[in-house]
Amino acid sequence: MTVVLCIFVAVLDGFDTQAIGFLAPAIARSLALPLPGFGSVFTAGLVGLMIGAITLGPLADRFGRKKMLVLATLAFGVFAFATAFAHTLPQLLVMRFLTGLGLGGAMPNVVALASEFSPRRLSRVCVTVLFSGMPAGAVVGGLVSAALLPRYGWHSVFYVGGALPVAVALAVAIWMPESVRYLTTLSSGRARARKIMFRIAPELAQRDIEFISGEVQHSGVPLRHLFTEGRAARTILLWIPYFMNLLVLYFIISWLPAVMVRTGSSITLGIQAITGFSLGGVVGSLIQGRLMDRLGLIRVLFLEFVFYIGFVVVLATQPLGVAGILVATGLAGIAVQGAQAGLNSLAAEIYPTSMRGTGVGCALAVGRIGSILGPIAGSLMLAFNWNAQQIFLAGVIPGAIAATAIVCSRRFGYR
């Protein structure tokens, strides 16, 4: 139940994050904005994502993951709904920033809760399946946008994207248990931990068992502990591919339709291409955990970045028809979003429970810096009239840097 509720949150996170990319041309026309100038709207949301991840993740380690997840999901639902009533650029910027705060705060807690309630042997599978929800949400966002936009306008998409998270937040508040590992760190929480554990293993209810945390509890500034006890190099080598991969991911989901339009393709093909990329992300996320278990974490992540580079080169240099474009973007989605699911699983593994929300949140926050720079880079390339070939080839650089960082991580013996 916990993992399923986490998946629902991830789907809605993907829906609300991606919807703005689908709706950018329509909103820009409605507000009389030049399309390249719409980058500030993407940036506002991504800055909110970064701040939400770096603040609500550590707060969850201190005050409880479930509380922060409910708060974050309510926040991005309420402010996504309010985005429909924005009539000026400043109003749109504020609403996207506030929506981003909730979106950024939800994901560290989703990762932490899903990893803690997963059987250890299936932990990678559960976390990567969880992250298939984000590209799945983007697919749903594309389908909903395509269905509602022509008939009801861009406002209607935000009505849907706002109401659903509020409903899911209420479901989380009612049915999701709090992290047992978190509860065992509180003297007042051990009775609640017993009730949850007895639901998981009813045969233990007849025995006098006390559940306690077996981990060292860290005091002081949570972020500092990411660089102590031999974790500094692991943290940095995690942050580099996080940054580079989310730079690529958010450039693609923000600007691919606009780049396709600039090459003379229809907006329909642009939306189909980004939908194909998102469908590829669903497939990549679903198979990621099993691949890492069988082939090894480092090998799978490295090959995904290499494949991504190959697909980018093909898109840039080969004349492709509609089918070829959709296949290439779908395969790129498998590589890029599969790698992101793998990185999220790795982040959940390398930090102890007492700092897992902080570790995942800070990795996501560093990645969000990349996700901010990706759309900014796209707006600059469009403003300087780069052609599609130049824009695609520029994407080789972050992929190569990420692959190098993954190779350097082999020294830690990840399996």
TrEMBL record:
Gene3D superfamilies, per database record: MFS general substrate transporter like domains
Cellular component terms (Gene Ontology): plasma membrane
Localization of this protein: Membrane
Keywords: Membrane, Transmembrane, Transmembrane helix
Cited SUPFAM superfamilies: MFS general substrate transporter (SSF103473)
Signal sequence region: none
Membrane topology: Multi-pass membrane protein
Domain of life (superkingdom): Bacteria
Keyword Membrane found: yes
InterPro entries referenced in this protein's UniProt entry, alphabetically: MFS (IPR011701), MFS_dom (IPR020846), MFS_trans_sf (IPR036259), Sugar_transporter_CS (IPR005829)
Record-given protein name: MFS transporter
